[in-house]
Amino acid sequence: MNIRKILVSQPTPSSTKSPYFDIAEKYGIEVVFRPFIRVESISSKDFRQQRIQLAEYTAVIFTAKTAIDHFFKICEEMRVTVPETMKYFCTTETIALYLQKYIVYRKRKIFFGKSGKVDDLIPSINKHSGEKYIVPISDVHVDDSTHILDTLKVECVKAVMYRTVSNDFAPEEAFDYDMLIFFSPNGVNALLKNFPNFDQGDICIGAFGASTAKSVKEAGLRLDIEAPRPEAPSMTAALDLFLKDKIKKEKK
To answer: CATH 3.40.50.10090 occupies which residues in the chain?
Structure first.
């Protein structure tokens, strides 16, 4: 099981300081960023079919940067002006800071959690129970992290604002990877769509998130790396530990 080339199913990092580049240099391996899926906006026509009046909502809950992009895109296409009084609830500070792409951060009401889970936002949401909440999601929303919102005594609607589709491989595109790393069940599904007769063999598979790991196993594939976990809170930390352990075993 010699790891020479790893496919990370995410877009290429915008910064050269990504931990993946450090791992590639540390272990002398090649890391290729190639998403198995891509996100597309839904049309304003499709959005209207949901019969959701954006102007009626006074607070929005974001669970990803992608949701922010498509929320403001839909608002622009629908010619809805996002009011100065809009409140923003984000599952992480990183997502909250991303709002600066669209709003003047210091002048808005912004709340964020620490763990990346909607649960962290519950105290803040309860303090603002009089707001009308909207949650932008994908058409194949498989993460049940927002289900807790259904139990709260607040007015909340989940609005499909973007769709996730398979980013198909071209016939001439090489598939010579020793490891595949996934970050969503959709990525696993896209692998099987592109390669219905996929034979894992010695190819290692890593998964970030419980739902992704579950999808790997349900597909009958071997899961070699899983994150987050206490000793590896990130995928890069888990990958580093895996490669380090592999080298130790090879030296014995």
So the answer is: 5-36+169-251, 40-164
> What 3-state class would DSSP assign to 169?
coil
Cis bond before residue 233 (omega within 30° of 0): no
pLDDT of residue 144 exceeding 70: no
Got the DSSP string for 85-152? T-EEEESSHHHHHHGGGTS-GGGSEEEE-SSSSGGGGHHHHHHTTTSEEEEEEETT---GGGGGGGGS
pLDDT band at 145 (very low <50, low <70, confident <90, very high): low
Q: Does domain 5-36+169-251 have CATH number 3.40.630.30?
A: no
Mean pLDDT along residues 175-188: 93
